[in-house]
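Here we describe the complex-level prediction in full. Unlike the single-chain runs in Section 2.1, the two entities below were treated as one system.
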Amino acid sequence: MKTITKLWIGLGALVALSPLGLFFPVYFKAGSAWGEWGADEMQKLVGYIPRGLEKFSRLWSAPLPDYAFKGWENKSLASLSLAYIFSAAVGILVCVGVVYLLAKLLSKK
Amino acid sequence: MHIPDGYLGPATCGFFYLVMLPIWTIASKIVKKTLSVKQVPMLAIGAAFSFVIMMLNIPIPGGTTGHAVGAVIVAILLGPWAACIAITVALVIQALLFGDGGITAIGANCFNMAFVMPFTGYYIYKAISYKTSVGSKRRVVAAGIAGYVALNIAAGLTGLEFGLQPLLHHTASGQALYCPYGLKVALPVMLGEHLLVFGWVEAVVTALVIKYLQKNSPELLMELSLRGRSPKQSRF
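The structure predicted for the assembly as a whole is:
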């Protein structure tokens, strides 16, 4: 088998394993990444929500926020894992699509 | 390490967009000139690999989470300019589709993870593996060290960017407008957690991929300029 084919298969395996990135932090009771808290978490941490942060944090509404579907914040870990796999697959397909598109654009003089 | 919207003030966000614009322009020009059509699938795999490896959050028990970026392995395989493009693609998609990293912070996040990280990693790898054969053990070690150091430099820069905010933007009463943690907290925390935990993840990932390719596809590890391209071969 060609190496490049093996690398694609490896990527597929990483997509399937991606929910581990969701499980481990929950299992080991780890919170958000440092400096990536939501506004309510910030209130708990420093006692206030910085005004600029509050304003800009709502600037963008991503279609799959935190690699899940909108409104899925309180879903079970099993459901969230499925959403995570779906997000990983979508993300990879879009990455590949964008790189091929860029390659096409760059190849034109 | 993905700075969200609202943590950096407008001046910092604008500054890093301005810094990245010429870098993205040069990267496109260089990639257009040097990358052959045959390498496009590798570039796509590089962007996709970086995207998914950043989803694999590693916990510090009872504390916070972090992840590898994959920027150094992509830089070793495709060169730092192509890696800059690949990681930028991953970061922009993460920000736009998944809200991971802010859209106002794309410039800063790309500067840390798509520019400084692949470049420092690439040159550390080159320096340590200097003149060794493609299959040598020293290259595996070089890749690990490069991954470790480069991720920590990127984390240190992120800490610096966070930590400058309370100095740059605060109300008359001293309340921060954006990131509330100053340099004394942000820098040691960002550096510390990456030095202790996440840097090792990047090191292992980078070294393992090199080891795997030495066995299965050593031609991918040869100097970019020596990979036997005929002049007739179509390029960008």
